[in-house]
Write a structure and sequence with these properties.
Blueprint: E1 6-8, E2 14-16, E3 32-35, H1 41-52, E4 56-61, E5 73-76, H2 82-96, E6 101-104, H3 119-147, E7 155-160, H4 173-196, E8 200-205, H5 213-225, H6 231-240, H7 250-261
Parallel strand pairs: 3-4, 3-6, 4-5, 6-7, 7-8
Antiparallel strand pairs: 1-2
Helix pairs in contact: 1-7, 2-3, 3-4
Protein backbone atom coordinates (compact mmCIF):
# COMPACT_ATOMS: atom_id res chain seq x y z
CA UNK A 1 0.00 0.00 0.00
CA UNK A 2 2.17 2.85 -1.29
CA UNK A 3 1.27 6.50 -0.94
CA UNK A 4 0.38 6.67 -4.62
CA UNK A 5 -2.58 4.36 -4.07
CA UNK A 6 -3.76 5.44 -0.58
CA UNK A 7 -4.03 8.50 1.63
CA UNK A 8 -3.65 8.51 5.44
CA UNK A 9 -6.91 9.68 7.06
CA UNK A 10 -6.92 11.66 10.38
CA UNK A 11 -7.89 8.50 12.28
CA UNK A 12 -4.87 6.67 10.96
CA UNK A 13 -6.70 4.48 8.43
CA UNK A 14 -5.69 4.20 4.81
CA UNK A 15 -8.27 5.30 2.24
CA UNK A 16 -8.03 4.95 -1.54
CA UNK A 17 -6.47 7.98 -3.18
CA UNK A 18 -8.55 8.96 -6.21
CA UNK A 19 -6.57 12.05 -7.29
CA UNK A 20 -5.69 11.81 -10.96
CA UNK A 21 -6.08 8.04 -11.00
CA UNK A 22 -9.84 7.89 -11.49
CA UNK A 23 -11.11 5.78 -14.35
CA UNK A 24 -11.90 7.76 -17.47
CA UNK A 25 -15.61 8.57 -17.55
CA UNK A 26 -16.91 7.89 -21.06
CA UNK A 27 -20.56 8.24 -20.01
CA UNK A 28 -21.96 6.82 -23.25
CA UNK A 29 -24.61 4.49 -21.86
CA UNK A 30 -28.09 5.33 -23.12
CA UNK A 31 -26.93 7.41 -26.07
CA UNK A 32 -27.86 6.79 -29.72
CA UNK A 33 -25.32 6.68 -32.54
CA UNK A 34 -25.54 6.44 -36.32
CA UNK A 35 -22.56 4.86 -38.10
CA UNK A 36 -22.25 5.02 -41.88
CA UNK A 37 -20.14 2.61 -43.89
CA UNK A 38 -20.91 0.03 -41.23
CA UNK A 39 -20.24 -2.97 -43.47
CA UNK A 40 -16.52 -2.16 -43.71
CA UNK A 41 -13.82 -3.18 -41.26
CA UNK A 42 -13.68 0.16 -39.41
CA UNK A 43 -17.47 0.36 -39.44
CA UNK A 44 -17.89 -3.05 -37.84
CA UNK A 45 -15.23 -2.30 -35.21
CA UNK A 46 -16.86 1.06 -34.43
CA UNK A 47 -20.31 -0.45 -34.01
CA UNK A 48 -18.88 -3.09 -31.71
CA UNK A 49 -16.92 -0.60 -29.61
CA UNK A 50 -19.86 1.79 -29.19
CA UNK A 51 -22.24 -1.04 -28.37
CA UNK A 52 -19.83 -2.26 -25.70
CA UNK A 53 -20.18 1.13 -23.99
CA UNK A 54 -23.97 0.86 -23.84
CA UNK A 55 -24.73 2.90 -26.96
CA UNK A 56 -27.78 2.09 -29.08
CA UNK A 57 -26.03 1.70 -32.42
CA UNK A 58 -27.80 2.28 -35.72
CA UNK A 59 -25.62 0.86 -38.47
CA UNK A 60 -26.00 1.90 -42.09
CA UNK A 61 -24.60 1.14 -45.50
CA UNK A 62 -25.78 0.37 -49.00
CA UNK A 63 -27.88 -2.76 -49.40
CA UNK A 64 -29.26 -5.25 -46.92
CA UNK A 65 -27.69 -5.91 -43.55
CA UNK A 66 -24.71 -8.28 -43.80
CA UNK A 67 -24.21 -11.01 -41.24
CA UNK A 68 -22.24 -10.15 -38.13
CA UNK A 69 -22.93 -6.41 -37.87
CA UNK A 70 -23.06 -5.61 -34.11
CA UNK A 71 -25.86 -3.03 -33.95
CA UNK A 72 -29.37 -2.62 -32.58
CA UNK A 73 -30.72 -1.52 -35.94
CA UNK A 74 -29.80 -1.42 -39.64
CA UNK A 75 -30.61 1.34 -42.12
CA UNK A 76 -30.02 1.14 -45.85
CA UNK A 77 -28.47 4.52 -46.59
CA UNK A 78 -26.95 6.08 -49.70
CA UNK A 79 -24.74 8.80 -48.26
CA UNK A 80 -24.67 10.64 -51.59
CA UNK A 81 -28.47 11.11 -51.59
CA UNK A 82 -30.10 13.97 -49.71
CA UNK A 83 -33.42 12.13 -49.82
CA UNK A 84 -31.87 8.97 -48.35
CA UNK A 85 -30.34 10.98 -45.52
CA UNK A 86 -33.61 12.76 -44.75
CA UNK A 87 -35.49 9.47 -44.59
CA UNK A 88 -32.86 7.92 -42.31
CA UNK A 89 -32.88 10.80 -39.84
CA UNK A 90 -36.68 10.94 -39.73
CA UNK A 91 -36.76 7.21 -39.00
CA UNK A 92 -34.27 7.68 -36.15
CA UNK A 93 -36.32 10.56 -34.75
CA UNK A 94 -39.53 8.51 -34.91
CA UNK A 95 -38.02 5.38 -33.31
CA UNK A 96 -35.58 6.85 -30.79
CA UNK A 97 -36.39 10.54 -30.41
CA UNK A 98 -32.72 11.45 -30.21
CA UNK A 99 -29.36 11.21 -31.92
CA UNK A 100 -26.25 11.88 -29.85
CA UNK A 101 -23.44 10.65 -32.11
CA UNK A 102 -22.93 10.70 -35.87
CA UNK A 103 -19.98 8.77 -37.30
CA UNK A 104 -19.42 9.62 -40.97
CA UNK A 105 -17.32 6.61 -41.92
CA UNK A 106 -18.48 5.69 -45.46
CA UNK A 107 -15.73 6.08 -48.02
CA UNK A 108 -13.92 4.64 -51.04
CA UNK A 109 -10.31 4.78 -52.24
CA UNK A 110 -10.00 4.52 -56.03
CA UNK A 111 -6.42 4.14 -57.27
CA UNK A 112 -5.43 5.45 -60.68
CA UNK A 113 -2.90 7.56 -62.51
CA UNK A 114 -4.27 11.08 -62.73
CA UNK A 115 -4.04 10.97 -66.52
CA UNK A 116 -6.11 7.77 -66.63
CA UNK A 117 -8.83 8.69 -64.10
CA UNK A 118 -12.24 9.41 -65.56
CA UNK A 119 -14.22 12.42 -64.44
CA UNK A 120 -16.98 10.02 -63.38
CA UNK A 121 -14.62 8.11 -61.06
CA UNK A 122 -13.23 11.37 -59.65
CA UNK A 123 -16.71 12.69 -58.94
CA UNK A 124 -17.86 9.40 -57.39
CA UNK A 125 -14.99 9.55 -54.88
CA UNK A 126 -15.78 13.15 -53.94
CA UNK A 127 -19.49 12.39 -53.79
CA UNK A 128 -19.11 9.54 -51.30
CA UNK A 129 -16.18 10.82 -49.26
CA UNK A 130 -17.01 14.54 -49.13
CA UNK A 131 -20.65 15.06 -50.12
CA UNK A 132 -21.60 12.15 -47.85
CA UNK A 133 -20.07 13.94 -44.85
CA UNK A 134 -21.65 17.28 -45.76
CA UNK A 135 -25.10 15.75 -46.31
CA UNK A 136 -24.85 13.71 -43.12
CA UNK A 137 -24.02 16.70 -40.97
CA UNK A 138 -26.69 18.82 -42.64
CA UNK A 139 -29.44 16.20 -42.33
CA UNK A 140 -28.59 15.14 -38.77
CA UNK A 141 -27.99 18.65 -37.42
CA UNK A 142 -31.57 19.39 -36.19
CA UNK A 143 -31.82 16.10 -34.29
CA UNK A 144 -28.28 16.38 -32.93
CA UNK A 145 -29.04 19.92 -31.77
CA UNK A 146 -32.25 18.78 -30.07
CA UNK A 147 -30.39 15.96 -28.32
CA UNK A 148 -27.30 17.94 -27.31
CA UNK A 149 -28.75 19.16 -24.01
CA UNK A 150 -29.18 15.60 -22.76
CA UNK A 151 -25.44 15.09 -22.29
CA UNK A 152 -22.72 16.97 -20.43
CA UNK A 153 -20.52 16.96 -23.53
CA UNK A 154 -23.36 17.66 -25.96
CA UNK A 155 -23.74 15.83 -29.24
CA UNK A 156 -20.74 14.63 -31.25
CA UNK A 157 -19.89 14.27 -34.92
CA UNK A 158 -16.85 12.20 -35.87
CA UNK A 159 -15.76 12.28 -39.50
CA UNK A 160 -13.33 9.74 -40.93
CA UNK A 161 -10.52 11.54 -42.68
CA UNK A 162 -7.08 10.01 -43.23
CA UNK A 163 -3.39 10.58 -42.89
CA UNK A 164 -3.63 11.05 -46.66
CA UNK A 165 -5.25 14.45 -45.99
CA UNK A 166 -1.74 15.75 -45.22
CA UNK A 167 0.54 13.16 -46.81
CA UNK A 168 -0.31 12.62 -50.50
CA UNK A 169 0.69 9.49 -52.34
CA UNK A 170 1.01 8.62 -56.00
CA UNK A 171 -2.03 7.21 -57.82
CA UNK A 172 -4.45 8.39 -55.13
CA UNK A 173 -5.22 11.98 -56.10
CA UNK A 174 -9.00 11.59 -55.77
CA UNK A 175 -8.79 9.96 -52.35
CA UNK A 176 -6.18 12.34 -50.90
CA UNK A 177 -8.10 15.37 -52.16
CA UNK A 178 -11.35 14.07 -50.68
CA UNK A 179 -9.82 13.47 -47.26
CA UNK A 180 -8.19 16.91 -47.23
CA UNK A 181 -11.67 18.30 -47.91
CA UNK A 182 -13.13 16.30 -45.01
CA UNK A 183 -10.44 17.73 -42.75
CA UNK A 184 -11.30 21.31 -43.68
CA UNK A 185 -15.05 20.67 -43.59
CA UNK A 186 -14.68 19.31 -40.05
CA UNK A 187 -12.78 22.36 -38.85
CA UNK A 188 -15.18 24.75 -40.53
CA UNK A 189 -18.26 23.03 -39.07
CA UNK A 190 -16.71 23.11 -35.59
CA UNK A 191 -16.09 26.85 -35.78
CA UNK A 192 -19.52 27.56 -37.25
CA UNK A 193 -21.42 25.47 -34.70
CA UNK A 194 -19.58 27.26 -31.88
CA UNK A 195 -20.41 30.64 -33.39
CA UNK A 196 -24.07 29.62 -33.54
CA UNK A 197 -24.05 28.33 -29.97
CA UNK A 198 -24.76 24.72 -30.94
CA UNK A 199 -23.61 22.24 -28.32
CA UNK A 200 -22.25 19.87 -30.97
CA UNK A 201 -18.59 18.90 -31.05
CA UNK A 202 -17.10 18.09 -34.47
CA UNK A 203 -13.84 16.18 -34.86
CA UNK A 204 -12.14 13.95 -37.41
CA UNK A 205 -9.97 10.87 -37.16
CA UNK A 206 -6.88 10.51 -39.36
CA UNK A 207 -5.63 6.93 -39.30
CA UNK A 208 -2.64 5.81 -41.30
CA UNK A 209 -2.64 2.52 -43.17
CA UNK A 210 -5.36 0.30 -41.66
CA UNK A 211 -5.47 -3.49 -41.72
CA UNK A 212 -8.58 -3.76 -43.89
CA UNK A 213 -10.10 -5.06 -47.09
CA UNK A 214 -9.77 -1.54 -48.49
CA UNK A 215 -6.02 -1.51 -47.86
CA UNK A 216 -5.67 -4.93 -49.49
CA UNK A 217 -7.42 -3.57 -52.58
CA UNK A 218 -5.23 -0.45 -52.58
CA UNK A 219 -2.02 -2.49 -52.49
CA UNK A 220 -3.26 -4.83 -55.20
CA UNK A 221 -4.19 -1.91 -57.44
CA UNK A 222 -0.86 -0.21 -56.69
CA UNK A 223 0.88 -3.38 -57.83
CA UNK A 224 -1.02 -3.34 -61.12
CA UNK A 225 -0.33 0.34 -61.80
CA UNK A 226 3.40 0.02 -61.09
CA UNK A 227 3.86 -2.96 -63.36
CA UNK A 228 3.35 -5.87 -61.00
CA UNK A 229 5.46 -4.69 -58.08
CA UNK A 230 4.96 -7.50 -55.56
CA UNK A 231 2.25 -6.72 -53.03
CA UNK A 232 4.51 -7.91 -50.20
CA UNK A 233 7.16 -5.39 -51.27
CA UNK A 234 4.56 -2.62 -51.23
CA UNK A 235 3.33 -3.80 -47.85
CA UNK A 236 6.82 -3.62 -46.37
CA UNK A 237 7.30 -0.17 -47.85
CA UNK A 238 4.17 1.07 -46.10
CA UNK A 239 5.36 -0.46 -42.83
CA UNK A 240 8.67 1.39 -43.09
CA UNK A 241 6.82 4.68 -43.50
CA UNK A 242 4.96 4.27 -40.19
CA UNK A 243 6.74 5.16 -36.93
CA UNK A 244 4.96 2.31 -35.13
CA UNK A 245 6.30 -0.17 -37.67
CA UNK A 246 2.91 -1.75 -38.26
CA UNK A 247 -0.54 -1.04 -39.64
CA UNK A 248 -3.24 0.37 -37.36
CA UNK A 249 -6.06 -2.04 -36.59
CA UNK A 250 -9.77 -1.25 -37.08
CA UNK A 251 -10.25 -1.68 -33.32
CA UNK A 252 -7.68 1.03 -32.63
CA UNK A 253 -9.47 3.42 -34.99
CA UNK A 254 -12.74 2.55 -33.26
CA UNK A 255 -11.22 3.32 -29.85
CA UNK A 256 -10.36 6.82 -31.06
CA UNK A 257 -13.91 7.30 -32.33
CA UNK A 258 -15.40 6.15 -29.02
CA UNK A 259 -13.16 8.57 -27.12
CA UNK A 260 -14.19 11.51 -29.32
CA UNK A 261 -17.86 10.58 -28.88
CA UNK A 262 -17.55 10.42 -25.09
CA UNK A 263 -17.68 12.86 -22.20
CA UNK A 264 -13.96 12.25 -21.73
CA UNK A 265 -13.47 14.35 -24.89
CA UNK A 266 -15.91 17.09 -23.86
CA UNK A 267 -13.31 19.82 -24.56
CA UNK A 268 -12.07 18.32 -27.84
CA UNK A 269 -13.63 20.29 -30.69
CA UNK A 270 -12.43 21.05 -34.20
CA UNK A 271 -9.53 18.60 -33.92
CA UNK A 272 -8.71 17.67 -37.50
Amino acid sequence: SGSRQHTLAPDGTLVPHMGGEQDMDLDLAGTVALVTGAAGNIGVATCKALQREGVTVIASDLGARPDGIPAAEWLTLDVTSEESWSAAIEQIRARHGRLDILVNNAGIAPMSKLEDMSLADWRRCQSINVDGVFLGMKAALPLLRDSAGKRRSGAAIINLASGAADHPAAYSSAYCTSKAAVRMLTRNAAIEFSALGYKIRVNSVHPGAVESNMMDSILKRYSEITGSTPVEELYQGVLRSHPMGRFVTPDEVADAIVFLASDAARYVHGDA
